[in-house]
## 1
Amino acid sequence: MMESSYLGKRKLNANGAEREPSGAPAGFQAVVLGYDDAAGEAGAEARRVVGEMDFFKTEKRKEEAADRSHSAAGAPDDLSINKDDLTINMGLHVGRRKSGSEESIVDDGVSSNEVDHRETKAELALAKSEIGRLNEENKQLKNMLTRVTTNYNSLQMHVLTLMQHRNSHRGLGAPGHELSVDPEKDQDGSQLLPRQFISLGTAASPDEPPLRSAGADIRGGDCSASPSNTDAAMPPPVDYCAGKGNAATISSKDVMPLPTFDHHHHHHHHRGGAHERDQRGSSPEDPPPHHVPQGWLPSKVPKFLPAKGPEPVPEAATMRKARVSVRARSEAAMISDGCQWRKYGQKMAKGNPCPRAYYRCTMAAGCPVRKQVQRCAEDTTVVITTYEGNHNHPLPPAAMPMASTTAAAASMLLSGSMPSADGSLMAGSNFLARAVLPCSSNVATISASAPFPTVTLDLTQPGPGAQQPPPRPDPAQLQAALADAARPVALPQLFGQKLYDPSKLSAVQAAAKAAPADAGDTVSAAAVIASDPNFPAVLAAAIKSYIGGSSSGGGGGSSGTVPPPPASSGGDSSRDDKIGEQDS
DNA sequence: CGAGTTTGACCCGCGC
DNA sequence: GCGCGGGTCAAACTCG
């Protein structure tokens, strides 16, 4: 058999073979975290492609509609309105990270209205049933919210940690970091790679197992708190780590908190089905007990067996493949993200003179994670890296930041676009957008564009509106900011006003519905992932700080080379090439 | 010689 | 059904 896939050749045992059930969801979701405003045209272009604009438009439309419908409040549509409210609430909560109040809100609204307006028993009964229904919905939403919140928390935590790390590094002179600094933006080269790691995933709501899988795994490691590491040597950066997961920090020297990845990478869309057999099928015996090693293995490629997932998470089912793309300026062919990659292909993408390179994670056999690297057509200094899949193995500390960040982003997207219920993907997007958008900054944008929704993290520029300049985030400040954001009431107005307004809701909903319709393919919603204004900046800064500029592998040792930047300056800035984005 | 890259061919989904 | 384009494979090649 030819199963000798490159993997086999390399060193991967077949056992690790990722078996991807062909049934894997073909859909992809891509999340884009944008950050550059200043990025200028390049960034703008990119966003445009994504369709961010649409998103905003939608918002406006919603508002308008809301105004119009405003008068209708109290009308027979109460119920619907309330429903909307729920949705909105979710958004709010998400932003606020508070959950649990929506119920009351909803109830209040409903009950009061109902009482006032429904006189006949029949009507009352009806109303009640409605309420019940709403409550259920509310629950669902809550779940979603929880998920999102968790992810958000994770991100924050992570960022915080990074920041702290960085800070300590500067001030205290933390011991080594390995990441190379991005020449482009980091003047002080403070990139430090956090040698410590925090487990985030756990934050996930305890009752939301799936959540974890969705988000956390996306990038892999992220999350999960590994119990074992909690005691680490480093002072916990922040304790507010994700809710219950405590942030466990460990000296990262070499240990990696291995997340509990239950991975099931199985899914993996993979369209080239034909080939699958070689890779995964190759392993004849494959039942590799996926065991996740506890510690991080040395730099050499650990051949761990694929972590075993006792429970095949239904992830495949729920999770559409999420794609997270990161835009960063780097002359280096590839940004170092701490992982090891092997190039398995290169192609010229249509519309972009720069070739697109395909990489596969080689840190573990069978790791389904892949990434595409491509330079922007217009701005060759910008490298767009798109990640896909979840690592099924522990990640080195160096890889954690990126991994968790992307994971969180993806997970957010995913959670927002749960196909379940009546929420369609689009709806989810809207929801997310709503939740996040308010802040206007464009660090993170979510695009639900056609083929696959995408999340993009744009690190090309320092955040515009972000109040946290990357240069030197004060940990204290940061914490304060985050805490503030976390406060339930933090920006009530921002959200409350707009979102809560029942009238707007209807508008919103309409928009949401409309989206799917036209968007079937092009509708894209862009949203900032954080409701916290600081968030974007922080996140970007954090990531940026550890993204090495050189392919030489600052930390991970990715040896891949990215497509050489075609010297030709992109004459036409007609399109930006977002790897996960395709223009069809 | 092993590990990784190069590169043309192949597969597959999608739009026309 | 056909062609296009994205994504992957895998033999050949390069490098240390």
## 2
Amino acid sequence: MPRARQRPRLVDVAEHAAVSLATASRALTGRTGVSAEVADRIRQIARELGYVANPYARTLASGATSTVGLIVHQVDDPYFSEIAAGVIQLAAEQGLLVQICQSGRDPDYELQELRHLIAQRVGIVLISGSGYDDPRMESAARAELAAFQDHGGRAAAIGRHALGVDAVLPDNEAGGYALAQHLMDLGHRRIAVAAGSAGLTTVADRLAGVSSALRQRGRSPADLTVVHSDFTRSGGRAAAEQILNEHPETTAIIALNDVMAMGVLSTLRTRRVPVPARMSVVGFDDVSVAADLAPSLTTIRLPMTEMGRTALTLALKPRTTRPRRRPTGHLLVVRDSTGPAPRT
Amino acid sequence: MPRARQRPRLVDVAEHAAVSLATASRALTGRTGVSAEVADRIRQIARELGYVANPYARTLASGATSTVGLIVHQVDDPYFSEIAAGVIQLAAEQGLLVQICQSGRDPDYELQELRHLIAQRVGIVLISGSGYDDPRMESAARAELAAFQDHGGRAAAIGRHALGVDAVLPDNEAGGYALAQHLMDLGHRRIAVAAGSAGLTTVADRLAGVSSALRQRGRSPADLTVVHSDFTRSGGRAAAEQILNEHPETTAIIALNDVMAMGVLSTLRTRRVPVPARMSVVGFDDVSVAADLAPSLTTIRLPMTEMGRTALTLALKPRTTRPRRRPTGHLLVVRDSTGPAPRT
DNA sequence: CTAGGGTACGTAAGCGCTTACGTTGCCGGT
DNA sequence: ACCGGCAACGTAAGCGCTTACGTACCCTAG
């Protein structure tokens, strides 16, 4: 069957304007070497014809890509979806398209997705989610990104250092510190931490902040119970179970992110532990639902959407010799899930 | 400065294997016309060299794309992020990449993004989110998609009919019906609906289900208060305010999606209206946080992730003459936000 | 023994752009 | 009057693939 009329090509524009291909191309890409009037005429004709350059041909010829690859752990985790929203917003403003992949929190799979994106010749790679304490885990990704940048690619990380690329980094340690302070101010002495997987830098940093707050008040780090699980709702549930069973004296739980806190609250509800009367709970990130939980969650606010935008902004800027680190603000948001330690 | 070694090209593979470009291409794309041994050797060499075909060159030459464009209203809305997760999952399994755009719930902007995706020559377009009652609103998108399909593109819609493409459709009417039934069973007589923007088919369908349940019990549709706002948390807050102020006799609120229900609950909390003692609240969708709200939300469960997968599956299958419609299941999930109507 | 057909492979023409390099014409400086 | 230089535009060579078409060879049927 006769194929419907195809999209107009650059030659069509050039013919209509009675100029050469080269001139049309220069006019439409805003390059120099065309007089203003001719350029205007060409652009006008392109608009009338509904011409849009074929990005495959353009990329093939020029080598410059206009798509950004974004790697997140899980798109339906609110922390990541807010970051993604920021990236996509700014990308749209810049006329860029974003290709998104999920790593499913698996470092091997993440590496595979990273390779896939690079093989697909994206121009920019943005990688979010915690990195790994073990340098060997990161080194493959690091090498991949270095090679990518050597070939002219741009990259940035979100909430992840040690990747050798520009990064936007929340002050996880200060956040952990603030949470612990807040709980101690309320009189809590037996604090437990529901932590994500051991080996994640985010976990280590937030935990370090908590410990240093305890130390600063003369408490022994041994006073702190740390239960490792993972950064999901069910991870939070499991951690809470363990804390309740093995450390019944606990009066406050620090979940190292909000999604875990949701799981913690869920378990406390099931076990009929009143929050905050019997147990205070705090989270980290301030995802948008944190305010709607039962009870509303005290947490550290991170500007996720902004972080996504900032990361893309960094990647868009000309590269510097040394990777840049852009800190983000953070803020303790006190809501209803924390209260004075119960009297015993 | 001397550019670092570039990625291997098809010619490199061909040379190493001492075959022609054509043969190498045939072997790697699994086409016929190569003996099994030669094909194996070529594939083996490609693997050793770390060869991955340049998708830009491939697409330019063959015309076939391997990227799918996904349009959602808002990626950080849990309803859409769960759909996106499903699409991305399946796409990854199929070796496809997903380009994602947000329409920001603006039909004009959505159309623009649709055009952008098509201009970018994606092979598959998936469009999610409610359509518009007014046929003129949809006709431009419809025409765009028809032209796209004529050029060999594939498309599918999620939760949206009347676009002339394959669609996966929840039974919104039956869901609304079930919610109203549930509330009437609990003795509620003064029911209000916190609806999304008037003019959305999803709103109309869910509302129709509610009305028909009332009618079936011999109630007049006039008994039903409908407040239009929009499908966001703040939309839910606004609707609840209005219901509380103008219809104080209301004992149950049907929010037409969970995100609005979150806003409704938030307002009720602020106004100190006990749920469900004084007011029952239901939502629609069963996003994953619905169970963690205060109180946990009675709602209609839709398999969002599955819907995303199904839509991509539909688009991947050979096109049929008439657009297919794939229904999805739904289920009333009763939680703590609904209870018997208060005695007066 | 030969014609016909099928299989395995090579040759080369694009796909729709960008861009290095050429060409033309006009300007000002001496 | 002449020349160097620059701006504006054209010519054509790719970018890295796919694929229509051509060629060599082998096998089978008559």
## 3
Amino acid sequence: MTSFEQPNFKNHFAELLKLAASKIVTSDSNARIELTRTKQANHGDYSCNLAMQLAKPLRKNPREIAALLIEALPDSPYLEKVEIAGAGFINLFLKVSAKQRIIANIFQNSNQFGHSDAQNDKKIQIEFVSANPTGPLHVGHGRGAAFGASLANLLSAVGYSVSREYYVNDAGRQMDILTLSTWLRYLELHGITIPFPSNAYQGKYVRDMAHLIKQAHTDRYVHQSEFLLQDMPLPNQDGVIDLEAQLNKLIANSKEILGQDYAYIHNFVLTEQLGDCRNDLMEFGVVFENWFSEQSLFDNGLVAHAVELLEKKNYLYHQDGASWFRSSDFGDEKDRVVQRENGQFTYFASDIAYHLNKFERGFDLVIDVWGADHHGYIPRVKGAIQALEMDPEKLEVALVQFAVLYRDGRKVPMSTRSGEFVTLRELRNEVGKDAARFFYVMRKSDQHLDFDLDLAKSQSNENPVYYIQYAHARVCSVLSQWNEDVATLHDINTESLTSPMELALLQKLIDFPDIIESAAKEYAPHVIAFYLRDLASEFHSYYNATRFLVPEIPIRLARLALIASTRQVLCNGLALLGVSAPEKM
RNA sequence: GUGCCCGUAGCUCAAUUGGAUAGAGCACCAGCCUUCUAAGCUGGGGGUUACAGGUUCGAUCCCUGUCGGGCACACCA
């Protein structure tokens, strides 16, 4: 068998139809040539609705146009026949020999099969997770992580040069609260007890960090409590205590008392949490090229710079002592504060600077993966980008809905406030990395996800992860019993593969590159999950109906080549989702 | 109240972005292991795509309205 370029029959036929159309349409009809895979075998392998699209501009019967198109269609070595059907569909039938050649192609490209260089190394950045480093990641972050990582793999597979980035919110008040919380726990360890604020961080990990500081520095950061509690805000005339104001005062006092040491504790807790987060994600198979510090934007004057730019371009005004950005000029529902009365920049201000910085780094496209609750934030960020005379089209925001855990058919209660949340690490420990990665992306990302813990753990046919992995393991098992070098299958004769099941499986393998392409285009990893389910199903049927290790050598080898290439595609698809492909189960 | 998202089989979800008879899994029923892993396979029932209109050759998809659910409406991050 001669080697040949990776064929994409869909694109190939689209090209032929385009040529045919150019012969019968003189003016630009702006008709899109779109081929779709057919659902029914008697409709052929690919179908095109071009004739129906041209019916109006040409003022002709679609079936008539279809006939003209077919007449003008250039010859193709892959085409068995063409038919007109229904209202004017053009149905294309692939030659069996063309289908069989996919096997050689899969072996040739091995773990790159399905990948393309269509995007020609265009620079794309995808920012995801970006959770505050103030505590362990929880299951909500997990979905963003799984989605972002899979999407990044998909984008890379279609030829983008991908940069994965985690935006570290190390500058805000939340970090101060964590610093204070840790120091209070540390003081407790030295017998100095101050009522622990209810709105400070309650988690056990805070006590753990306090222990670490004590171990390393004994009583170096101990100070007496009366200083810490001085000038606390009092209840108002209604007896209501402003807890947030109290917390702010505690933070301010501790900064004063600790002096330079405050920065040490701040840095310590940040490093601890970030390290934990990085480790957690690594074990989840999620890695980043870049961890971008929000604080660095302040340190380098980029926040002030961004705000000045807006000022210069007359998109700021001053009211009630604050600086407002005219985001309502760009479709936002109201204007937004970028600098407060006390001179502090808002989170939005640093986010403008961050996006300005992203664009200045020269990415062709920037993707932000956010929780769906942030959707209201999009207009102001895009507005700022536009105000700074950059192209808002170059920013794509992918929203990910929350995941709700179910155990024993009941919702697992979760709320950050009560500290009652399931961490990503706990989830991984319970269901394993593979099930977690797969379940997170098996639904469309903008849909709520019901995550069934019992199902994810079950080792049964109900569990889609095992179903797919099992198909892979089965192939491995057959090949190991065959006990010869798989490489010898790479260029064997596959003419005997003509049964309906074999043809269906071949067609499924042919689809893989198109599946990757559309999944990447739509930012839809779930498409891969569904595809793998289908492919595994096709394989299991074949496995059940066919014996592979038959005495007739040519048939045996052809069948083994088919299942070995199926294994390759299963493996490539699972890799895109960050799921392992075990050889034994 | 305003804006965005959603409503598809008993349950969880798809549907190549306007295409042909709306598909999978689970659950339910009936079969298949002396044979390469039964974590598998084969067959079956199950639908007014929330509802009412509209646009056109053609609508789950686009437009309008109604009902129901989620989210967001900070000088928080």
## 4
Amino acid sequence: MISTDLIKGSLKTIVLKLLKENGRMYGYEITRKVEELTAGQIKLTYGALYPILHKLENEGVLVTESENYNNRIRVYYSLTDKGESVVAEKVREMKEFIESLQNIVNPQPGLNHA
Amino acid sequence: MISTDLIKGSLKTIVLKLLKENGRMYGYEITRKVEELTAGQIKLTYGALYPILHKLENEGVLVTESENYNNRIRVYYSLTDKGESVVAEKVREMKEFIESLQNIVNPQPGLNHA
DNA sequence: TCATATATTTAAGTAACTTATATATTGCAA
DNA sequence: TTGCAATATATAAGTTACTTAAATATATGA
């Protein structure tokens, strides 16, 4: 498992990117998808996920549709137009972040920045 | 610039990895090296850096040597034996983290995990 | 009958940061 | 010679994105 400190700041971006890739999803589905994609390395707790979803809905980034499945409520979330542009920006930022981290953990010895 | 939320949890690992690569360094030097390696994307503020260094010293991960240069105090930090193994573990974790993030932002459509 | 999986919600607590402030020297430009 | 930028370290106060924990409810297989 990866320490929660490391993962913390990236949860919102992860949720948004999954919604972009998969269209509408419900909360429980999102947690399982994250585990699947990261081979169990990243786990989204419900205490983190649902507040994130509610906040993004309040901000107009997501919209919900509640449906009934097997007598259980499912709240499906999907991106608004605003959400689409928010995702694009967040993903761009994350790619820059990944690149920066790679420059740290895999420094190129030949490349002298002096 | 990358949002501070994203960067937050990785600062300690970044500091430790730089010390591993460069041997002993002083605080101010570390902040500049991070900016250089990340093309200005990641900035280590002093309010973050010095508490991190002090804490790592208290934990026996780092040791200090204070020297005088141009009438300014420089506190050089370097890894202890314990520090070396801490870095190894932290870097391993960060590589897993990067890999997980890449699986999110660059999903492989052909690869079906169902 | 009981544990596990499914499904959502929210309150309370933690800690890694940011922001701001303090202090002091060197060196360059106007 | 005045004043700003760069160099160098330190720490107190505040923020916030999380974690942990507790609550609620149904379906399903052993």
